[in-house]
Amino acid sequence: MSRLPHVADGPYAPPVPARELTVTAADGARIHVEVHGPEGAPAVVLAHGWCCSTAFWAAQIRELAADHRVIAYDQRGHGRSPANPAYGTEPLADDLEAVLDATLAPGERAVIAGHSMGGMTLMAAAGRPAVREHAAAVLLCSTGSARLVASATVLPMRAGRVRTWLTRRILGSRAPLGPVTPLARRILKYGTMGPGSGPDMVEACARIVHACPSRVRHGWSQVLDLLDLDHGVRELRMPVEIVVGTADRLTPPVQARALAAALPDCVGLTELPGLGHMTPVEAPDLVSGKIRALAATYIPSARGERAVPVEERA
């Protein structure tokens, strides 16, 4: 059993950042930010999901930081970002906007990838000036914009009011998750990962999820329960690519297909057979490759044009 917030070795162990900083959001919330990779390289920004942390992106950071500047941050109340009494999609948008303003030069473009609640953060912030200025392209992994509880298939029963009621009680539970035990790993794998997920993947996700404080987990579950960001999807006017696992029980493929139909500029929808909700962990090479390809296509500096040196940043 372990309460360590992440694995200590292997492909899912978080790399040491080149630098760390604390960003202050509009309401005073303090957001922990990590920067990896060389300064002046094409920028990538990573926004993790509910109950996770920057450690969730370890595989992507490890692969991309060789030739990209990778910026990852802890959502408020997660990882090393202190809990804050403000829960809601607007605070999530505030935090992303603050991170972009603090880490990117004026006019600098980046690929922004969001998993689950991180994708919802992007939808909430789609109309914000910082997103309009800095988002060259977006990758949405395993996410949705509305009706999350009703569409979730965590419970193997027919869709309807009873399933929705029971799912709401499970996802919104205040009960602490406790240490990572064999039973806890099995439960987490069933609810969030595909049946073929390896033990190292399950261990990495279990450590991260179990490290999330129960009050933070519950507080954000209430936001996700009432989520309605369909309007935000239509404001994502930059090129957007979507990845989803066909065995995703939390944001099943119906959510991804609805996003693809509503986005003004959807450049691809990839459904990964047998994979669950944790696609960046379950398909690390594919997700990293999608981010790399978006950067190569939509960021001028990734195509060999001049990047913005750090000394020229405001």
TrEMBL record:
Q: Which SUPFAM superfamilies match?
A: alpha/beta-Hydrolases
UniProt domain AB hydrolase-1: residue ranges: 44-287
Q: Is Hydrolase set as a keyword in this record?
A: yes
- What are the alphabetically sorted keywords of the record? Hydrolase
Cited InterPro entries: AB_hydrolase, AB_hydrolase_1, AB_hydrolase_fold
MF terms from GO for this chain are: hydrolase activity
Q: What is the official name of this protein in its record?
A: Alpha/beta hydrolase
- Can you name the source organism? Streptomyces violaceorubidus
The opening ranks of the lineage are:
Bacteria, Bacillati, Actinomycetota, Actinomycetes, Kitasatosporales
